[in-house]
Amino acid sequence: MANLGINHVTKSFGSLAVLKDIKISIEDGEFLVLVGPSGCGKSTLLSIIAGLEEHTSGTITIDGRPVDDLEPKERDIAMVFQSYALYPAMTVEQNIGFSLEMSKMPKAERVERVSKVADLLQISHLLKRRPGQLSGGQRQRVAMGRALVREPKIFLFDEPLSNLDAKLRVEMRTEIKRLHQRLGATIVYVTHDQIEAMTMATRIAVMKDGVLQQFGTPEDIYDRPANVFVATFMGSPPMNLLPATVVDGASGPRLSLKGADVTLPLPSSVTARLEPGSDVLLGLRPEWLSLAAEEVSANPMLTLHVDVIEPTGPDVFVALRAGEREIMARLPTGTPIRSGEKRAFALDLSKAVVFDAGTGIAH
Amino acid sequence: MTPSKRLQAALPAFVLSPSLAAIAICVYGFIAYTALLSFTGSKMFARFDFVGLRQYERLFDNPRWITAVENMAIFGGLYVVVATCLGLYIAILIDQKIRLEGVFRAIFLYPMALSFVVTGVIWQWLLNPGLGLEHMVRSLGWQSFTFQWLVDPDWAIYTIVIAGVWQVAGFVMALFLAGLRGVDTEILRAARIDGAPIHKVYTRIVIPALRPVFLTAFVIEAHLAIKSYDLVVALTKGGPGVSTELPSTFMYSMTFTRNELGVGAASATVMLTSLAAIIVPYLYAELRDDRRA
Ligand SMILES: Nc1ncnc2c1ncn2[C@@H]1O[C@H](COP(=O)(O)OP(=O)(O)OP(=O)(O)O)[C@@H](O)[C@H]1O
Ligand SMILES: [Mg+2]
Questions:
Q1: pLDDT digits over A42-97, tens only?
Q2: Are the C-beta atoms of B43 and B262 separated by less than 8 Å?
Q3: Thinking of the domain A240-356, which architecture would CATH place it in?
Q4: Which residue, among A71, A80, A103, A110, has the nearest Cα to A185 in the 3D structure?
Q5: Is a pLDDT exceeding 50 seen at residue A360?
Q6: To which protein family does this belong (chain B) (predicted)?
Q7: Where are the domains of chain B?
Q8: Distance of CA B7 to the CA centre of its chain
Q9: Pairwise CA distance, residues A10 & A54, whole Å
Q10: Which helix (H) or strand (E) holds B55?
């Protein structure tokens, strides 16, 4: 178990810059999730941490010690691959024990370590089988066993659940999280699934096109996205972005929504001074909208046209219209609402975010 | 059915029938005919006086046939083993992301494009003491150098192995290279993380995963070895003496030059059954796999 530092790491394949000045550091026992759209360089960064790929510049430290010149096996890391990468000609037992065998551990000790891990993952009955005779979920467990048996300082996971069906994915997600809590291990986990990121991480790094967009706790990322990309990438349905203009009001600047005849107070999250007349985007999570009660509420109100209602079980997603603009709201199931109505909605602006309309960066 | 539709349905059968007939008569017909002859007392011409297994007894009493079978075992065994190992080794070398890979692949595959006769003639020149290797090394100054395998009855069979392996190794390499390329790169990365040194990666992970390729290579090499005839004829003509006689050359000389049609037919039948013993299980396994897939 150890802390991990990624300091100003860049990586180019020829003239193609794949990672640009990545800077992340996590403490011992943290669960870091690297998330971002396909091709943003997550796997490349993970390979660099593992030592499978060389970086162009920067340093990687494990336990405060630079490991840039170390071979993968000397870094004391273990990795679980997306395709599981089990050795097809070996039994499950040999697969799990292979790294111990390579480090010349005596057989008796090896067998004991393997059986302990197999018990932990509930795959003891599979030890004599070959990977070809296992189901996807069982292979996944074997791949995890192969990593666990080494008792490494850091675990690296590259989209380990993406080949599983939805139900198994949720189960394994919980199981990995449980393992993390039980072992207190440091984990770096790559995914492009934002729900996996939110549910498992203690720290999330959101990447796009090789650039780190934001690094923080899941709450930071969800409640205080650093820019429009993070705001819309994390969360489902994504955050609503309403174009607005800053106007002067009696008690300081207010936001005048475009296409609607309303002005709203500036959310308390905004610390910067906004020049009147500047264009901004008001970021509102769907759950920050609620059906306004009859009496005048303390929150600002917006009258919107109800377009489509999508029940999901616990919640209903409601597509609303304000002129041309679509706004998603997330309401509790049982909310009396019908499509085609015009209803007043209260906006909870306490967490709302304001982005610069030009740069997309949060104010 | 309209006439044109009926014609369309009949056309494939119509087009295929001449070749089907040719195969039925020229291949299977003559196989049956040869098998039939092996139970007769035919000498120079085919006669139908059945003598039971007489010709097979005579065949296995013939020391020349025994030499041929022994040679087949030596040649076949070495040919298969050496060609497989060499092919695999070259494939592993080429798989190391080398430059000019295409060029090397072509160079190693090229011998396969030559006929056995050409291969035989080339190696006859190379191994001929007065013309080839020995002559060259001596003219470079090493006067005592001798390399006389081609004319030494105890060693001549190994020259056939050399020539045969030279010709087929590139093809085996191509088979193995395709197999190596099929190994998931994530497996190799996992092995690196597990700390396996490169030779362990191959012996423990990659080569065991190539089992089907080994099977294919073995079947191809084995049938090439058993049917090799032209290579021997071009390289040694079965000599010196009968020291490089193979079943195929034996069969030819019995049938066509020594007027022992019955014995020749018996040896041909023995060769066919041993080939079938190799090929049929392979085909069976392959076809069963296909059905499962
Ligand atoms: N060996 C390579 N040579 C050249 N470019 C590469 C190489 N490996 C990766 N890349 C490029 O680097 C970029 C990042 O790749 P990477 O595999 O890290 O993406 P990713 O974030 O893991 O995507 P995904 O979610 O699809 O797995 C991609 O644009 C890819 O084309
Ligand atoms: Mg990836």
A1: 999 999 999 999 999 999 999 989 999 999 989 999 999 988 999 988 999 999 99
A2: yes
A3: Beta Barrel (2.40)
A4: A80
A5: yes
A6: Belongs to the binding-protein-dependent transport system permease family.
A7: 74-245
A8: 44
A9: 10
A10: helix B54-61
Residue B293: what pLDDT?
Answer: 43
Q: Do A73 and B195 touch (CB under 8 A)?
A: yes
Residue bearing the CA closest to ligand 1, atom 28: A39
CA distance A355 to A283: 7
State how far the Cα of A272 lies from the Cα of A266, in Å rounded to an integer. Answer: 11
* Amino acid at site A353: V
Q: Supply the ipTM of this predicted assembly.
A: 0.82
B289 to chain A, closest Cα gap in Å: 15
Sequence-separated (6 or more) residues with CB below 8 Å from residue A349: A264, A265, A267, A268, A288, A299, A300
Average pLDDT estimate for A291-315:
82
Partner B contacted by A47 (CB < 8 A): yes
pLDDT digits (tens, 9 = 90+) for A164-180: 888 888 988 998 999 89
CATH, domain A4-233, list 3.40.50.2000, 3.40.50.300, 2.60.40.2470, 3.30.200.20:
3.40.50.300
Which chain A residues contact residue B203 at CB under 8 A?
none
Q: Where are the domains of chain A?
A: 4-233, 240-356
How many C-beta neighbours within 10 Å does residue A313 have? 6
| Among candidates A78, A79, A85 on the partner chain, residue whose Cβ is nearest the Cβ of B187 | A85
Out of B193, B197, B205, the one facing A50 most closely (by C-beta) is B193
Which CATH architecture best describes the domain B74-245?
Orthogonal Bundle (1.10)
Instruction: Name every residue whose Cβ is closer than 8 Å to that of residue A215 and which is 6 or more positions away in sequence.
Output: A23, A24, A203, A204, A205, A206
